[in-house]
Amino acid sequence: MNANVLVLNQDYQPLSVCSVQRSMKLIFLEKAELLHDDPEKELRTTRRSFQFPSVIRLRNYIRVPYSKIVLSRRNVMRRDDYTCQYCGKKSGLTIDHIMPKSRGGKDTWENLTTACDRCNVRKGNRTPKEAKMELLSKPYRPVPITFFRDSNGGVQEPWKPYLYMT
Fold first, then answer.
1. How does pLDDT run across 67-80, given as a tens digit for each residue?
2. Do 94 and 120 touch, CB atoms closer than 8 A?
């Protein structure tokens, strides 16, 4: 039962990921319909067995305000795959301003990157070019659908058409 289920809006747009328990509640309350199940698994009670959900679609449209990803430390690190963008290290991570705040750098997606403590101290109050430290990837503002897709760990095969991965 420790599986995730992709939740789609009525128009088939991805909304979120929920637990199997939550998806079964939505199905039983007729708030959602099962689109794909996992044929290798089933949910059993003492008297019945049920299909194991993988993708569900809500029966009523949920109005979602313009979805943009909140700029936060956690989301910057998720975007950068929890990896120092200077040396590739995956521990002792912090957030680095590419253009230092003391020199007018702002808190924006394009100016923040993940760095390990050592690289952040080495770079100091300089730009990467001045410090002769090259970034492994250029920081960018993530697109909601790709961020959703990339930050949810493994993507199940039935999810791929709904996450534009076919």
1. 678 899 989 998 99
2. yes
Amino acid at 164: Y
Half-sphere exposure of 10 (CA within 13 A, CB side): 8
Dump pLDDT digits (tens) for 86-101.
999 999 999 999 999 9
Q: How far apart are the first and last CA of the chain?
A: 27
What kind and span of H or E run contains 1? none
Q: What is the value of pTM for the model shown?
A: 0.61
* Cα dihedral 95, 99, 103, 106 in deg (nearest 10): -70
**What six digits make up the tokens of 89?**
């290290």
Alpha-carbon span 87 to 36, nearest angstrom: 41
3-state secondary structure (DSSP) of residue 14: strand
Q: Which of 43, 58, 59, 67 is nearest to 7 (CA)?
A: 58
